[in-house]
Amino acid sequence: MDFLRRFTRQISFKNGLSVHDEKLPQYRLKDVASHCTIESCWMVIRDKVYDFTEFIEYHPGGYELMLEYAGADATTAFDEKPHTIEANAMLDKYLIGVLVKEDRMIS
Ligand code: HEM
């Protein structure tokens, strides 16, 4: 039960970081596009902008796979691969902002 409570808290925190949160910095797709290398690796997943520079080298699926999507929208690639709840929960750590409304695909 303790685990369940902790888990639920984690999920609600995750859901708290919404693309509609006005406090998050907003970026255009073209801002993300200029961070397309292993030295500076930004990506969009579900309209949120992430800086994976610190993580890319440690990706269990290899850095090459992630690098293909550096500077781009990786939503489909991320969802199509077998990513666990733990992998999804890791995303928040790298969140730096959201896309501006005009560039969003989902919300
Ligand atoms: C950008 C596109 C991405 C692609 C194409 C991709 C692909 C993959 C693949 C193929 C594996 C399986 C490796 C294996 O079992 O040998 C994997 C595992 C994993 N990836 Fe990714 N990945 C991406 C992004 C990410 C991101 C952004 C994170 C987290 C910040 C992440 C975290 C993980 C973790 C933790 C695993 C280990 C298995 C798991 O816990 O799900 N990946 N990835």
Topology:
Layout: H1 2-16, E1 26-27, H2 29-33, E2 42-45, E3 48-51, H3 63-67, H4 75-80, H5 85-90, E4 95-99
Parallel strand pairs: 1-4
Antiparallel strand pairs: 2-3, 3-4
Protoporphyrin IX containing FE binds next to helix 3, helix 4 and helix 5.
Question: What would you say this structure looks like, in words?
Answer:
- This protein is 35% helix and 14% strand.
- With 107 residues, the chain is an alpha+beta fold.
- The protein has a single domain, classed as Roll (Flavocytochrome B2, Chain A, domain 1), CATH 3.10.120.
- It has a four-stranded mixed sheet.
- It starts with a helix and ends in an 8-residue tail after the last strand.
- Bound molecules: protoporphyrin IX containing FE (HEM).
- Protoporphyrin IX containing FE binds next to helix 3, helix 4 and helix 5.
- Keywords: Heme, Iron, Membrane, Metal-binding, Transmembrane.
Question: Which features does this protein show?
Answer:
107 residues; alpha+beta; Flavocytochrome B2, Chain A, domain 1; 4-stranded mixed β-sheet; 5 helices; 35% helix; globular; binds protoporphyrin IX containing FE; metal ion binding
